[in-house]
Amino acid sequence: MRGARPEIALERAIESDGAIRRGDRIAVACSGGPDSVALAAALHALSKPMDLQLVLAHVNHATRSSAWQDECVVLRLAATFGLPCETTTLAGGARDEAALREARYAALSESARKHGCTVVATAHHAEDQSETVLLALFRGTGPDGVAGMRLRRPLAPGVELARPLLRVAGSRLTEYCQARGLPYAVDPTNADASLRRNALREALEALRPVFPGLDAAVARAAAIAQDEREGSRRAALRRSVRERLAGERDLRDVDFEHVEAAVRALERGASGSFHMKAGVRLEIERGAIARVVADS
Predict the structure, then answer these.
(1) What are the angstrom distances between the C-alpha of 46 and each of 37, 243, 244?
(2) What is the extent of the structural domain holding 150?
(3) Taking the model in full, what pTM does it have?
(4) In this structure, which of 34, 46, 58, 85 has its CB flanked by the most CB atoms within 10 Å?
């Protein structure tokens, strides 16, 4: 995502990850923050090439007096792009995070149905996925919690929830807004360390310089858990590669990305030679594992 054209990289990432599909009618959940503003702008840029129809959907949680500023950002964004905008204000009153999330998704689903949309798109990104998985682990979760957030899942009757930014770092979304000169609001409650997610976010920020691959590693673990839970073809292919390697050599030094490159070749029915680790190659012929070769 770094470089002179971060906007192009983000748009290509959304186009290729599969959460958004050609012809989707999408209600874009837009809070007015940099993440959702970047998502709305990127989807607007992709609307013609992917034949997307978009509506901006804003939910005011009515939990702080400055929320009207967020709504102004969303309305300005809708006017800039010439998109319809649906705003909903939740009933006031004390609510915990889970209750607010449930009310927000209900409001977004209703906005989607009102405008004939079958998808609600949210701007959850890579750091959000790390937080979700770790919070689940701290609660003592099973395989479902380790799988984290899915790229796409049912949300309500006739409406699916899509998260096209789960493999994108949050900093890249702010860069996108800045590169395109887009306005965005900053939610002051993100600094409230009394909220569990914010406290974890602060701890992870301290860990990232020591473990620079933290979010990518958590994302990989979540993706593997999702594939295994769903019994996907990719999960079966991944096991076949690792089992074949385990029968020949120690797996400890085999990089995940090398395994995934071989899995993608098997999915495509391709042929080729794939480096697994020093001195070990996996030969694939027409979408099938042919042999493991140990170089002398």
Answers:
(1) 14, 40, 41
(2) 6-207
(3) 0.84
(4) 58
